[in-house]
Specification:
Number of helices: 13
Structural class: alpha/beta
Distance between the termini: 18 Å
Shape: globular
Helix content: 25-40%
Largest sheet: 12 strands, mixed
Order of helices and strands: EEHEEHHEHHHEHEHEHEHEHEHHEEEEE
């Protein structure tokens, strides 16, 4: 159990109600598919581990600072949101040496999720693993390319490819857990973590797995990545005030802040959860995916693809726009992206769009790229459990082109029965998840 949270719902303590306006837990499975619960959460983020991250987010703290992993002085951007946890508390030095950092973060998040779900020592042979990453092992590639240039091909590590390829997060998590069920990797840029959770939801709902570890990981705060994003002019240049650099929906936003981390949710079928009397955080109700089919990096200016993803997720969940109590926005703090998402929300929710509380965790966490969707899904789950919506850090003067009810300043106490979480990536790849209170 995540310490500090209320006990949560057990499968035999459901709340009544069904249909429009009723509790989501009262709905029958759509199309005969099985219900899917979130029963464990594992997080490694710039704001800490697990529950600690959520409460620091609620308090309005920032995880952004000057880059410490290498000297950023030659770069126009010198700030990022780094994970400062000592991973040797979970992984031995040999493991650390033979894996890229994004894989290391995945292993820690998976172990935290397993413990949180109460599955330590259990038989996980049939468990699935679906992991997402946007970039994969870039740090390993850069380091070993330098070895090649300076010392020659005979000194390049044989672990280079197995350490850096994107699927190794899912592969190594499966090895560590003994999970022999469905195993796959999703690479859809900044939508990867949310897509991974959505695809894992489908596996469990369809009966392909009873239990699935799903999420995303990213560790690409490296010289090459930073240089590329700098030259793309995608990043905030507020080097003198890192904590105030990431500004979702703010009129003065000037780009996103790179971050790193990992988030993994344990998704479990209703039957499996009931059989072991699992503690339940929330239910995954629906999932929608779409493409902008518009541009390599820029979103569709009208948010067309994003709107389609939300509409598909709501339809998949059997939820009407009127039933949604909260939106966790992708909102990276880029001039184009935030407006496009606001337009998408307006298109889907109409007059209600300005009345639904919206938060954007990237103001505090930075943009965790391929891990963002997973970590922010966990934030959404915690909001459902606690009834608290974290404030959007640094949204001091809301952009009038984003006419949404953005939660700012203080956390908002709110009964969250149904929530939407959005994630969008380069290439116009969009994912939207609908989550609800478990009952």
């Amino acid at each position: 159990m995540v310490p500090g949270f209320r006990q949560g719902m057990r499968p035999d303590e459901g709340e009544g109600g069904s249909g429009a306006g009723g509790q989501p837990g009262g709905r029958l499975p759509r199309g005969g598919r099985r219900r899917v619960f979130v029963t464990g959460v594992g997080l490694v983020t710039p704001l800490g581990i697990g529950e600690e991250m959520f409460w620091r987010l609620v308090r309005g703290e920032s995880g952004v600072g000057r880059i410490s992993r290498f000297d950023p002085s030659p770069f126009p951007v010198q700030i990022a949101a780094e994970v400062n946890q000592d991973l040797t508390a979970w992984l031995d030095h040999r493991t650390l040496r033979h894996m890229d950092r994004f894989v290391q973060l995945s292993l820690v998040a998976a172990e935290l999720a397993r413990k949180d779900a109460g599955l330590e020592g259990g038989d996980l042979r049939d468990a699935g693993v679906v992991m997402g990453t946007g970039i994969g092992g870039l740090a390993t590639l850069e380091a070993q390319h330098q070895v090649l240039l300076e010392k020659g091909p005979g000194r390049v590590s044989p672990f280079t490819v197995p350490a850096m390829i994107p699927n190794m997060a899912a592969g190594q998590v499966a090895i560590a857990l003994g999970a022999m069920g469905p195993n796959m990797c999703v690479v859809t840029a900044c939508a990867s973590g949310a897509h991974a959770i959505g695809e894992a939801f489908r596996l469990v709902a369809a009966g392909e797995a009873e239990v699935c570890f799903a999420g995303g990981s990213e560790a690409s705060i490296t010289p090459l990545s930073l240089a590329s994003f700098c030259n793309m002019r995608a990043l905030s240049t507020r080097n003198d005030d890192p904590a105030r650099a990431s500004r979702p929906f703010d009129r003065a936003r000037d780009g996103f802040v790179m971050g790193e981390g990992a988030g993994i949710l344990l998704l479990e079928s209703e039957e499996h959860a009931r059989a072991r009397s699992a503690r339940i955080y929330a239910e995954v109700l629906g999932y929608g995916a779409s493409a902008d089919a518009h541009h390599l990096t820029a979103p569709h200016p009208e948010g067309t693809g994003a709107a389609r993803a939300m509409q598909r997720a709501l339809q998949d969940a059997g939820v009407s726009p009127e039933e949604v109590d909260h939106i966790n926005a992708h909102a990276t703090g880029t001039p184009l992206g935030d407006v496009a998402e606001a337009k998408a929300i307006l298109a889907v929710f109409g007059d209600r769009a300005e009345k639904i509380p919206v938060t954007a965790p990237k103001g505090a966490l930075g943009h965790l790229l391929g891990a963002a969707g997973a970590v922010e899904t966990a934030v959404t789950v915690f909001s459902i459990v606690t009834g608290l919506i974290p404030p959007t850090l640094n949204c001091e003067e809301k952009d009038p082109d984003c006419p949404l009810d953005v939660v700012v300043g203080e956390p908002r106490a709110c009964e969250v029965r149904v929530a939407v979480n959005n994630s969008f990536g380069f290439g116009g790849q969009n994912a939207s998840l609908v989550l609800g209170r478990a009952g």
